[in-house]
Amino acid sequence: MFALPEAWVWDFWFADDGERHHMFFLYASRALHDPDARHYRASIGHAVSEDLVHWTRVTDALVRADAPAFDDLATWTGSVVRHPDGTWFLFYTGSTLTAAGNVQRIGYATSSDLMTWHRSPDNPVLEADPRWYETLADGQWHDEAFRDPWVFRDPDGDGWHMLVTARGRTGPADDRGVVGHAWSPDLRSWELRPPLTEPGQGFGQLEVMQVENVDGVPVLLFSCLAQDMAQERSRTTTGGVWAAPAASALGPFDVGAARQLTDSSRYSGRLVRRRDGQWVLLAFDHDGPGGEFVGTIGDPIPVATSDGLLTAEAAHTAC
């Protein structure tokens, strides 16, 4: 388990330098008292491990910028990839408050060693486009959801793709969650594209997405709690980490057929491969026994595939 006595820890993501696993995580001081206040005080911390169990905290990666900036409120969830020239890119969500509400956009920082990060002067590189994505002006959601960038190489070598937590512009307010999509030839310049899924799949938002090929089975991983689901789906579950069938890394994704890997005791799941080749799931501890927010990151949970579906060998497995 990874825990900080002075701070809550929640969303996280990984990079592998060939010798150590690097975990980047959101954290905020418990001196806030109210765990819901953590979102507007989030910084990006950094820890390293050889086994995904025992972690050593190192220097933080990023904190919020001085105003005015796209990330002058908080720095939120992202992903890390390595350019062919050896440069590491940390894509992350920048949050800012406007008169209309919270707006989320995507930026990046670079590093030569995964330890010291420098923001791009071109930030932000992506934001919600009302041609395809809901914005605050639509008045349907509590914020402008455009966050949690998951970046990966094109399977056929044609540049890079980014999946984004976003919302479509049609349908009931609680059922507009979509897989946002952008493409880049070089990781520096980005072209926003229409979403890879349609609204109406039962989720108001698909948080902390990740796409992986687990033992030959493509899977879309995301997280969603009951309060952010369509009403009909929320009647039967507390929510948690979900896995949706995928035809490939770029879909089609059957979000409506997603199955729970955990209940709400664990959230923001990430798949990662250990040195022995075994895929495991890590998630942060969300709900405690009394429903209280926990804010620690649990140990790895083995996963497997059966009949084309991802399963998790977890004590908190919901189905």
UniProtKB/TrEMBL annotation:
Residues 19-228 form the Glycosyl hydrolase family 32 N-terminal domain. Keywords: Glycosidase, Hydrolase. Belongs to the glycosyl hydrolase 32 family. This is Family 43 glycosylhydrolase. The lineage of its organism: Bacteria, Bacillati, Actinomycetota, Actinomycetes, Micrococcales.
